[in-house]
Every structure is written in C-alpha cells, then in structure tokens.
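Q: Convert this sequence to structure tokens.
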Amino acid sequence: MRNCFSMKCRPKILPVIFLVFVTLWLRLVNLGYSNYQGDEIKALPLLVPEQTFFDFLLQQRKGPTQFIITYLIKLVNPAFTNEFFTRLPFALGGILAVFFFYRMVKLNFGRRIALYASIFLTVNGLFVGLNRIVQYQSFVILFSILSIYAISLAIKRKKWRIVGLYLGMLFWGMAVLSHYDGLFIAPYVVYLLICWYTRYINLPVRTRQKHILLSIGIFILIPAIFYVQFVFSISEATRTYWSTRLQEPIDVNTIKSSLVTFRIYNPLIVIYLYAVLGLLSILKIKKTFPVILWFIFPWIVFEGIIYDPGTHIYTYLIPATILIAFGVAVIEDALEKIAGEGYGRVLSRAGLVILFIFLSTLSHFIFVDHTPEYPWEERKYLIWTLEEPDSKYKLWLYGFPYNRYWDEIAEYIISTENNGFYSTNEKRSISGFYLPYEFNVNQSGYYIHIHNPQSLRERLPIDKIRYWRKNYQPVKVFEYRGRTVAEIYLMPEGDVKEIKKAGY
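A:
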C-alpha cells in the first residue's frame, strides 16, 4: 500500500487536507451562535391546528425537501430550540456537496482543476452563508452535483454505464424536487447525455434510446409526484411573491443588484480576482465549452429575465468556480513557460497558498467570527475595513452572525405580567417565532428595540415608540461583549396622544 504520508506524496495530500479542514471549519464552527433568521423560520414546519403536513407543503412557495428534513428534526426537537441541531443537516449537505464536487470535477477535468475549483467553491462566501442556514440550497447543490457525477461515471466507467445514468437522472429529479433551481444544470446534463449516447455505440441504438428515455422518465416522475398537485394548489400569496421576483414593481424603493449581493458575501478585491480568472479560462475553451454553457443558462435567466435574483445567483457561481480554476491553470502554465518549470511552479504554488489563505480567512472573519458582527457592523480585516452595505440596495443577508438574545428576551417577557401584545423594529417573522404574543404597536406593553436588526430598520417611524424611547429608559438591556444588542421598554397602552394625555 502506498504511504500517503511519505515525502513524495505529501505535496499532493496537503492541499486536500487544507480543503477538508476549511470546508468543515467554515460550515460547522459557531453554527449555533445566531438566532434564526427570517427565511430559516419559513423553512420550519410550523403547522396550524388541524393542518396536515402535506397540506402545509402545498401552501409553500418551493419544493418539499427542506420541510421534510426539518419535519424529521421536529420529531427529536419539537420546538426547534437548538439552532445548531436544526442547521446541522444543511451544513452536512453543504460539506458533502464540496466532497462530490471535487470528485466530479476530478473525473471530468483532472485533479488540479478539481482541487482549485473545490477550494474556490468552499471558501466562496455565498456558499458558506447558504450552508450555515436552514434552507434548501445545500441540497439543491448536493443533488445537482451528484447528478452530474453519476452520469459522468456512466461515461467514464463501463461498470457504471447503466446504473450511473439512472442514478444521475434520479438525483437530478431530487434536485428539482428540492427547488426549481435544480433545472439550471440542464445544459451540462444534456451534454453528458449526448456523450453517453455516443460513447456506447457498441450498444444497439434501440437499447441506448430506451435507457435515455427511461432515465428521463425517472427525472420527470420524481418532481412530478409533488409538483403536479402543487400547481393546482398555488395560493394567491405565492403568485404575488413570484410576480414580485419576476417583474419590476411600479413603486421601486430599493435597487436590486447581483453585484452588490456577491460583494456582501465576498467583499474587497474578490470579485475582480474572479472576473480576471474567469475570463482567462476562455483560453481553454475547448475543454470548458460545456461548462460555459452551464454558466450562461442560469446567468441569462437571472440577470436578463428575473428582476430580483437574490441569492439564486449561486446557480451560475457553481460552474463559475470551474472556469476560475481553469483561469488559474492558464496563469500557472504561463509562469512555467516564462520562468521555467521549476521557478514557475514555486511561484504559482506560493501565490496560490497566499490566495487561498486570504480567501478562507476572509470567510472566517465574515461568517465564523462574530466580534463584531459583519455586515451589521463594520469590522477590520488586515489593512481593510469591511463596511456595512448600502441600504439603498435590496439586501439578501443569510448565514451571517446574528445573536440578539431572542431566547432570553422571550424568557424575560413571558416571566412578567403583560397584556399579550408587543412591538419591535425587528422582522415579524423572527419576533413571532420566539414570542407567543400578538404584534400591535398601540396595544403593546413591551417594545423590543433590536440594535442592528435584520429588518434594517434601526428606528421605526412611529410617534409612540420615538416618544417613549426619547423620554424613558429601558427596563431591560441585553449586552454582548460590552455592546448593547437589545433593549426592552415597558409602555402604556394607546397611541402617543393618549399616553401624553394620561401624563406620561
């Protein structure tokens, strides 16, 4: 057996160890630090009385996979009191996605491209953030990559030529069942199916056609089991939601920008670096052409058709990481030609070590470290200052550190006499999960003021709350490492005119 810890093997195994370590670190460390965020709560099966789980699924805006996972979690932790435990399956899905992505790219493009592409994928802030929340993306990515990997095995390995084909289409169906985003690997899957069909010309034409059609039937059947009934049950609220994402509303208060979204998750020079490396991959177009098609399809849809793509840009960032890896290979090859094979290799490896450490530590300080909490607060990174994002843009903020002591806030309010009403400047989806009371500003006794809220509304334009905060002190303050994160005010019922008239 080869000794993979020998001096000869060590240069090959060390980058893989780095990839594994960074993948695990960025997805598991401090995973339970943050309170639930708005879209995480929407992924929890919080059924109303007399509602069945299937009825609940039909009322959602997306596929059932994330809800099935959280429903299984509910069997063990019915109140979802442990954020780490609830997020863990999704983080593990993200970890497995990186593992199979490495194997898939290695099978198709070789070890070097696989290593670079996998590191770019695992340190990309958008994928880190999405893997650290209770959301469908981890499993869409995992099943999509498994689909491509299985079909690639069917082409490259004869023993997988039939099983791999069916498994690949099965996994593709599961990706689409998880979310419609699973459709966006279509160009690469079609390319692989053509390769499979032409690879096994020794099989009779009718046999090949039969396997292609049957495997496509499996791909259609898996999501159809749910989506056929789902289509006939779409609520008006779901239609309204889709229309706001697909077309520009008449009254636009914020600007939508995928570049801004990308730069929130990957600040500083990252976007310029990726753009240059991606463009360089054109020099390898004979190898990358099917990957370019894979990239272009979701890019056209989300940047040319859909008005508000949000974090769905991850669909074209997956193939983009492969193109970026080819861009690195272009630079490596050029250095070896210019400086000689020995010096060129040393220079490229030194540059890659610096680059990958820079990208991984940047993601660490954004998502794992929380002193302070970016992007709600400015923070230092090396010689740079990572500033709060511009609020004029529509911001999609998932997976970032966010702890406002909501468990302790709920415990305090429940333990005191109250009239069952509250108000807050935080998103109602968040406060409503932690507090079993009704939101009503005029009737509320307690006002919960969150510093750096996810609602991005530091001050509510409500006279009663502004008046009370200006003239009265909070009855309870929550601090973290010397900074105030939440305050609770006890107010009388009524609007500002009534409380002033009462002598407050």
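Residues 341-368 form the longest helix (28 residues).
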